[in-house]
Specification:
By secondary structure, the protein is α/β, with parallel strands linked by helices. It folds into two domains: 2-162 and 335-390, Alpha-Beta Complex (Quinone Oxidoreductase, Chain A, domain 1); 164-332, NAD(P)-binding Rossmann-like Domain (Rossmann fold, 3-Layer(aba) Sandwich), CATH 3.40.50. It is 29% helix and 18% strand. The chain is built from 13 helices and 15 strands. The chain has helices at residues 39-45, 94-97, 154-157, 163-174, 189-200, 212-219, 232-239, 260-270, 274-283, 290-298, 320-325, 337-349, 370-379, and strands at 2-8, 11-16, 28-36, 62-69, 81-83, 135-138, 146-147, 181-185, 204-208, 224-226, 247-250, 304-307, 329-332, 363-366, 387-390. The strands form three sheets. Strands 3, 4, 5, 6, 7, 14 and 15 form a seven-stranded mixed β-sheet that branches. It binds nicotinamide-adenine-dinucleotide and zinc ion (2 copies). InterPro entries: ADH-like_C, ADH-like_N, ADH_Zn_CS, GroES-like_sf, NAD(P)-bd_dom_sf. Pfam families: ADH_N, ADH_zinc_N. This is Threonine dehydrogenase. One of its GO terms (molecular function) is oxidoreductase activity.
């Protein structure tokens, strides 16, 4: 089959790879009909390259049609239409039973000391072949895949694989009080949905984003927007009676724009051989922290900072004095996708499309054109906000 493979920093290609097969009784094989590129893929394309291997199949936002199931998969049959959550979780361990599917004790990657295995997400998360491919082997298919109807287009359901539950969890974790204000940093796909969800739940939402067309997309969903600058904290305080937003959601992560120290560190690490680069990432501050620091600066005293954006350095400097003094709560982590999908399914099927899932995709291309699409998405060319690949 054809699959999109990682080849090196900023280099991916479509290659012929062996078809996946049932290896375990709880596996399913799914023929992929739609599969999106995520901001997290851009981290693998750039900063997290040292954890990738040449030929790794990328992709963790897939959906499609079940082709074959293992003997213990009784909830699915060939022909079913399913969305595949990006975390691989068993559904019966203590973590899964407590809504922490991204920490699944059955699939945790012990070698790396990380949480649940993820599709297409580097050796940090188990080097599991991903879903930007014609077919995908889905482990623990007796729990993970979300069965969906056959009438509506793929884009109604596709984002249940990751960004919609991620944004939902980010807003839940932001813990905005009734009548409160949520500031969302970043209007990539995650920030777009987080802003719309905040508004849908009755909060005032102010989004911060440097790219004009991303602000324009949010504005057509009724979101107030501002540009990012050194004065963002002051601007947000001015807009909220001098106090600051009750909660701030960071939907940017470790590759923010306008963070010269982190950018330099990331560039320097990128020049090292993999083993040294990993060591550097484990011991030095390699995150671009301007957004996280702006979030801590702008949130009101006693407010919450919720991180959906991914960070990767183990020694990134944090303003602990301010965090302690302002009594800030923080919550973060990979999304527990399966915790939220039952709640989100009726919302994406609602004919009025309350979260505007049909207004996110800006580009649809065949899998063969994925390499160009990665580059376009990373460079934010041609108004690109979300790419959906059709294998
Ligand atoms: N927690 C999870 O489970 C989870 C799931 C999916 C994605 N993510 C992470 O969420 C983040 C966003 O993902 P995405 O798909 O929306 O990607 P994206 O790269 O399209 O979005 C990032 C956005 O942040 C904006 N930005 C950059 N610098 C900024 C600044 N200084 N101030 C304000 N905005 C700035 C960019 O212009 C862009 O619009 C990534 O870090 C991704 O890895 C996490
Ligand atoms: Zn993703
Ligand atoms: Zn589990």
């Amino acid at each position: 089959m054809k699959a999109l493979t990682w080849q090196g920093k900023r280099s991916v290609s479509v290659e012929d790879v062996p078809d996946p097969r049932i290896e375990d009784a709880s596996d399913a094989i799914v023929r992929i009909t739609s599969t999106a590129i995520c901001g997290s893929d851009l981290h693998l394309y750039e900063v997290l390259g040292p954890y990738m291997h040449k030929g790794d199949v990328l992709g963790h936002e897939p959906m499609g049609i079940v082709e074959e199931v293992g003997s213990s998969v009784t909830n699915l049959k060939p022909g079913d239409r399913v969305v595949i959550p990006f975390n691989i979780s068993c559904g019966h361990c203590w973590m899964c039973n407590n809504g922490l599917q991204s920490q699944c004790e059955t699939t945790q990657v012990h070698e790396q000391g990380t949480g649940a295995a993820l599709f297409g997400f580097s050796e940090l998360y188990g080097s599991v072949p991903g879903g930007q491919a014609e077919y995908l082997r889905v482990p623990h298919a007796d729990y993970g895949p979300v069965k969906v109807g056959s009438e509506l287009p793929d884009e109604r359901y596709l984002y249940l694989s990751d960004i919609l539950p991620t944004a939902w969890q980010g807003v839940q974790y932001a813990d905005v009080p009734d009548g409160g204000t949520l500031a969302v940093f970043g209007l990539g796909p995650v920030g777009q949905f987080a802003s719309r969800i905040g508004k849908h739940l009755g909060h005032r939402v102010i989004a911060v984003e440097p790219v004009a067309e991303r602000r324009a997309m949010a504005e057509r969903h009724g979101i107030e927007t501002i540009e990012f600058s050194k004065e963002t904290g002051d601007v947000l305080r001015e807009m909220t009676n001098g106090r600051g937003p009750d909660a701030v959601l960071d939907a940017v992560g470790m590759e923010s724009h306008g963070s010269p120290v982190g950018a330099f560190a990331q560039h320097a690490v990128g020049l090292l051989p993999d083993a040294l680069a990993k060591k550097a990432m484990e011991t030095a501050g390699v995150d671009r922290l301007n957004v996280l620091h702006a979030a801590i600066d702008s949130v009101r005293r006693g407010g919450t900072v919720s991180l959906s954006g991914v960070y990767g350095g183990t020694a990134s400097p944090m303003p602990l004095l301010t965090m302690f003094d302002k009594q800030i709560q923080t919550r973060m982590g990979q999304c527990n996708v399966r915790r939220w999908t039952d709640q989100l399914l009726p919302i994406v099927e609602d004919p009025s499309d309350p979260l505007g899932v049909m207004d996110l995709k800006t580009h649809e291309v065949p899998l063969s054109e994925a390499p160009g699409a990665y580059s376009m998405f990373q460079k934010k060319q041609d108004g690109c906000i979300k790419v959906v690949l059709k294998p």
